[in-house]
Amino acid sequence: MSWSAVTVLGADRPGVIAEVTSAITRSGANIEDSAMTLLGGHVAMMLLVSGEVPPASAFPGLTVTATEVTPRRSAGDTAGLGYVLTVHGPDRPGIVSEISGALAGASGVVTGMTTHLCGRLYVLIADVRLPEKVDVAALMRHLSAVGAGLGCEITFRPAEAEVL
Amino acid sequence: MAAGAPREALPGGVCRELIGAPHPVLTAKALPVDPTDPQVVAAAADLLATMRRSRCTGLAAPQIGLGWRLFSVDAGRHPATRSCAGEFVVANPRLVSASHWETAREGCLSVPGLTGGVPRATRITIQGEHPGSGAPLTVHADAFEARCIQHQLDHLDGVLFLDRVTGTRAVYRVAQKAVRQVT
């Protein structure tokens, strides 16, 4: 069975998710994984779909792309230790690229990221997985230096799973 | 619940402008104060006046532009409050015990438009001093009041709730009027 990465972008309105998912279900395909958010008043969906993806005409008013993919385990799925990164400070260009570059330099994998702009305040939250042998203290010092250069505050702390 | 010397009446304060992030005073460690200093007593009164006007449940001195270890709390109006010490201001507060952790959403007047899921102790004890006399003050708090007090303590250490959220999916945009402010 083929798998596709499907992206959906369009103006947010009530019912848009139901329309997209209904069209996929009617075509006999299955949604294996998904993420959805609102970006500047637009709904943005990313779906991993198994089976035949319906044609673009099945999604009126929406921009839809489908790319065939082979499912694979991500480097950040299970390996290493989980951390949460918070960055906040005045908005300026380059925050995401510099922070993600610092993490990549320590072989960190960003498994999730959200950013928010509230007035002048820019906020970045990231879920990060690090290999177990990374010198976390050294990475934290490096992140602090990068944050200071950006005029931002940075906190980097272990993710605490509440397993019940 | 508060224990220690009887609460003293503070002079009438003035409502001050609220400081929003990003601002250096919100990310710096606040300095200890002399609780008997008339300027500190006046600041305590201003905190109360500003907190009442803002209809929030707590306010820390950095939020009105003062890098001092001083905050006010009044959790009495909040529906999640159980026991309540009422309205109080404390100088040089320190956390002496904390237990029973829970994660819940909180917001902040200095970070309008966002809330976040933050783990906090739901049973705490703090000790500090009354502004004015400098007499010792102990507060045992639970539930929402404990959350509110820990949020204020964080402000005195230059920490925002954003620094404690549990992950990328624990930050939420909200209409600013809809935010139930912890501060």
TrEMBL record, chain A:
<dbReference type="Pfam" id="PF13740">
    <property type="entry name" value="ACT_6"/>
</dbReference>
<dbReference type="InterPro" id="IPR045865">
    <property type="entry name" value="ACT-like_dom_sf"/>
</dbReference>
<dbReference type="InterPro" id="IPR050990">
    <property type="entry name" value="UPF0237/GcvR_regulator"/>
</dbReference>
<dbReference type="InterPro" id="IPR002912">
    <property type="entry name" value="ACT_dom"/>
</dbReference>
<protein>
    <submittedName>
        <fullName>Amino acid-binding protein</fullName>
    </submittedName>
</protein>
<feature type="domain" description="ACT">
    <location>
        <begin position="5"/>
        <end position="92"/>
    </location>
</feature>
TrEMBL record, chain B:
<dbReference type="Pfam" id="PF01327">
    <property type="entry name" value="Pep_deformylase"/>
</dbReference>
<dbReference type="GO" id="GO:0046872">
    <property type="term" value="F:metal ion binding"/>
</dbReference>
<keyword id="KW-0408">Iron</keyword>
<comment type="similarity">
    <text>Belongs to the polypeptide deformylase family.</text>
</comment>
<feature type="binding site">
    <location>
        <position position="155"/>
    </location>
    <ligand>
        <name>Fe cation</name>
    </ligand>
</feature>
<dbReference type="InterPro" id="IPR036821">
    <property type="entry name" value="Peptide_deformylase_sf"/>
</dbReference>
<dbReference type="InterPro" id="IPR023635">
    <property type="entry name" value="Peptide_deformylase"/>
</dbReference>
<dbReference type="GO" id="GO:0042586">
    <property type="term" value="F:peptide deformylase activity"/>
</dbReference>
<protein>
    <recommendedName>
        <fullName>Peptide deformylase-like</fullName>
    </recommendedName>
</protein>
<feature type="binding site">
    <location>
        <position position="108"/>
    </location>
    <ligand>
        <name>Fe cation</name>
    </ligand>
</feature>
<keyword id="KW-0479">Metal-binding</keyword>
<feature type="binding site">
    <location>
        <position position="151"/>
    </location>
    <ligand>
        <name>Fe cation</name>
    </ligand>
</feature>
